[in-house]
Amino acid sequence: KLSKIARDDYVNFSFVLDEDITASTIAPFSDKLMMFQIYLLSTIGAGMYGVSGAVSARTDIIKLYGQFMLEVGMFANKGAEIMMANDWLEEPPQILDRDELSEYKH
After folding, report:
1. Contact, 75 vs 102, CB < 8 A?
2. CA dist., res. 37 & res. 79, Å (int)
């Protein structure tokens, strides 16, 4: 979607793909590590869409960034659910219950 907007506005850009595909069928990294990396990069990407939207002057692009942020956030959430289901991710620290802490117990 962003590429189309750039092309329509005559913005020239190029992508350099520097990736190699091998014939190997053996994973070089564990599922746990790869899942965490995908989750981490997804959450960072969602945040970057937010930053990009905040500095954009075009409302049509801001709207797209918001949609992308939602989609990537949902994708990252699914990754977190998969990691928790496999006991690869611990429950994040929770806020303390101040009411319970303030009760005097004998």
Report:
1. no
2. 10
